[in-house]
Amino acid sequence: MFEFDQYLGFLAFLTILTIGxxxxxxxxxxxxxxWVGGSIIELLKEKREARKAKQSE
Length: 57
Description:
Layout: H1 4-56
């Protein structure tokens, strides 16, 4: 069915595919929400500081 070289190529393909899949899952579940949450917090801080600066004038 498979020769040894084809078997190694197939295993390499499956390994790369699996690594890519788990990297995508990691990015979608941890990195992107962390990035979005951080930017929302920074936006709220900037608005709060602008409001304080406006009130102190």
